[in-house]
Each structure stands twice: as structure tokens, then as C-alpha cells.
Fold this sequence. Notes:
By secondary structure, the protein is mainly alpha-helical. Helices cover 95% and strands 0% of the residues. It contains three helices and no strands. The protein has helices at residues 2-25, 27-104, 108-130.
Amino acid sequence: MNAYALLSFLLGWVIGYVIFYFRFQHKDTINHLRTNLKETNKEFQIVQADLEEYSAQNTILKEELTKLLEKNDDLTDIVTELSKYYVHIKKASEKSTELSKYLQEPSPEVEEKIHHRSTKKEEEKSEKKFF
């Protein structure tokens, strides 16, 4: 029985050494893969935190964008109203330049009418003096 125990002990030791040898044969590769895994997990956590931050920023930007679009609609309405007023002011300006042109050049018809009215008034005044 001692022989069996010694044989099983030696067989267990050989199996253990073989497992140890095959396991630690690629120790550098395994350590390299473990460090890569740790670095990848850290990078993944950083990317996950960035994703959460960017999602929150995206939500805020979407809200601000909707506010700005509403303001843009309001400003568009204001600009259309102002353009209507601009058209009216432009027409009034054209009319005033036309009027100033007429006022700078005396019209013979107008002068004749003015002269006719002034003479008519003088005649009426002179008629009133005799009566």
C-alpha cells in the first residue's frame, strides 16, 4: 500500500507540475492580456462616462435648439412686419420726392390759377370799396 501511495503521490506531483508548467509557460502572454483587459476596462469606463456626459449635453442642446427655433420664428414674423413697413415707407419716400420735385419747379397752370385767384380777390376787394 505504501507503494500505491508513493506512486499516487508521484503521479499527482507530475500532473501538478505539468499543469503548473503549461499554465505558466505562457505567463508573459497571460499577464500582457490581463493588463490589456484592465486598460480596456478603464478606457471603457471613461468612454461610458463621456457618453453619459455627451448625452446630457445633447439633451440640453436639443432644448436650446427648440428655444432658438421658436425665437427664430418670432423674429421671422417681426422681419416680415418690418419689411411691410419698409415697403410703405419706401412708397411714401417716393411720393415725397415726387412732391418735392413738383414744389421746386413752379407749374405754369398753378401760377395761372394763383394769379387768377389773387386778381379775383383784388376785384372783390375793389368792388367792396365802392359800395
